[in-house]
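Ticket #247: bound-state structure for geranylgeranyl diphosphate.
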Amino acid sequence: MQVEAHLQKIIDQEGKVHLTLIDPASQTPERAAEIALAAVKGGTDAIMIGGSTGASGTLLDETVIKIKEKVDVPTILFPGSSAGLSRYADAVFFMSLLNSRDLGYVITNQVLGAPLVYQSQIEPISMAYLIVEPGGTVGWVGDAKLIPRKKPELAAVYALAGKYLGMHYTYLEAGSGADKPINPEMIGAVKQVLGENKLIVGGGIRDAEAAKLCALAGADMIVTGTVLEEVRDVTVKVAELVSAIKR
Ligand SMILES: CC(C)=CCC/C(C)=C/CC/C(C)=C/CC/C(C)=C/COP(=O)(O)OP(=O)(O)O
Ligand SMILES: O=P(O)(O)OC[C@@H](O)CO
Ligand SMILES: [Mg+2]
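RESOLUTION: The complex was predicted; output attached.
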């Protein structure tokens, strides 16, 4: 419960959480650690590590190790499969892609990954992962029956089912690099049924205004990945996003 409790404490004290997503396949472990450090200087609360294609093995382990050498905030795995686990991380979003047509993403990868989590110190954080249009690479890889952008009620019933199955977190994903983030109507409808359960929103959030809209609509945590791979000054960008969502 350490990482989950830590994030809860930040929500209690500061209202919202900012998460930085680093894809181990996008740069060297050393560069990943530099980005993580810059993000922490900007005020990010934790580092998510994962990618939908090829984040595994030595590259993944080395990326986690280098990041942990540089920063004190929690490292949380965001695995694309059971191969996306590393014993060096603090926690894992132990997620099921509830709207996948492929049983592999609903339960099989979780079964294959469970023994490593059991044998290590990685804290599992149970999460319902829901992919909304346009869905991007992760929507294709995960064979998701994409939730239409204009159907907030569909996202809400999936989230409710996840909550009744005992999942603590719900992640509304528009897909990495999406042209628009999840809309406020959908975020509001999902948060309404979740109550105290936590809502993460990500995909296509590139500036303070978008982050603020998502947070005001009911997101407890905001994820940014792509934009931090693109900007020159990660600290400045993260500081802008963080100050837009925190009270
Ligand atoms: C809990 C365990 C062991 C496994 C879960 C397995 C599941 C449910 C995966 C969901 C489907 C999937 C492929 C998720 C990937 C999540 C992720 C890291 C998304 C961000 O990646 P992108 O930024 O889109 O990746 P690329 O940049 O590699 O396209
Ligand atoms: O890369 P971006 O668009 O910030 O999306 C982050 C995350 O939701 C992807 O899984
Ligand atoms: Mg990516």
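RESOLUTION NOTES: The beta strands are 17-22, 46-49, 75-77, 91-97, 123-131, 169-173, 198-202, 221-224.
TICKET STATUS: resolved
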